[in-house]
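Dear support,

I submitted the protein below through the web form. The confirmation email said the job was done, but the results page showed an empty box. After a refresh the structure appeared. I'm attaching both so you can tell me whether what I see now is the final result or a partial one.
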Amino acid sequence: MKKLAWWLACFSALLGSLHFVRLRAPSGLRLWLPKLMAGALSPFLALTGAFGAVLGFLSKKPFTFLLGVYGLVASGRYVRRVTAFHDGFERAFGPGWEERIPIERRLQMLHRRWTWIAPSPPPARWERDVPFWSLSDSGRQLLCDLWRPPADARPSGLALIYLHGSAWCLGDKDLGTRTFFRHLAGQGHVVMDVAYRMYPEVGLRGMLDDVRRAIVWMKTNAAQYQARPDRIVLMGGSAGGHLALLAAYTSLQSVFPTEDLQDADTSVRAVVAFYGPGELRRSSRQAEVGIKASSRPGFFERRRQLPKSVETAFGIVLGERAVRLLADTLAKLPDIGHLDRIVGGAPSDLDEMIRLASPITHVSPACPPTLLLHGEHDLLVPIESSRALYRKLRGAGVPAVLVEFPQTDHAFDLVAPRISPTAQAALYDVERFLALME
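What the results page shows now:
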């Protein structure tokens, strides 16, 4: 019993301590996944600490008892903080905003910001690799996955276009989002998961072109999917969140115009960004410091191949697709954070290009309602970027909500979403925001 008490208390305390650590790239990247797992498993880490403390007390081991209490308090405090009530919706949409959501819609939503295990979403109709555009110069088809509501679900009329996280140069659709999409489809929404082109195939302009093409395709085919052309919502995470914000705020195409869509309507009803860079220069400084520090001679040569133990651990926790993404990330690390390569243009124009590529530059009263979700400890995209964007949106009179998750890092919504308090709290806010957009 003494050994069991020690191991339980120690495990809870060690992982619980990560809640208080603000990681910095590049060294912090090694603890990024453990920190994400500590956040997702925090309720169970609190229980583990409690059991360790009880067993330590019964076995008369004061240090083990105190270690277990520390683990309990650290993780329990984290759960309480990330699931706490906030008044962001009231400030954006006024008192009584929730009464604007029909009662039948509210009954479909999460009733609490966190529960031990979120209800399993109903099965959705999933169409994979659906072509939505053919490029005129190469004939290449752009693909997406479509998530449709169950046959017995009442369509909401909303069509959500989702843009995956990528650092603008890696990743793909369908990575860690299936539970999220099933939940949204179960509420009657159509989800279009887009595989947009990335660097080095295209720069930022090409990515933005693909987002606009997805919008036009969905507007054209909205009736087929029981959606409304005027109820398109852009949504994305990280770099995908940046593209969603930029496309939503530049729908008139006065900046980075798309040649084959000059007369097309690319406006959207709303935009949702998970930890997306709203102010690119601020975000690029944080990324470049870490990535360029990792670019010293010999760094990449030692890390081109994943160690077998790491590959196995990632495969068990996140699946084979995550392993491939991690390997791809290591191979493309030299491209991450180098905005001169992503935004394009001459070196003398770089500052102006980065300014134009920042969503905050294009904020005006015409911007659509915006929901921003960001972790306080984000090691890749500083939360100050979302705070600055939120302040400017509010100053322009745009209905905007910023949800900050204390002690939380980048990609918090992609790890164990059914048990993660942070992922559940984010979903709680997203589904209410979307209901207000119907």
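Response: this is the final, complete result; the empty box was a page-load delay. The first helix runs from residue 2 to 17.
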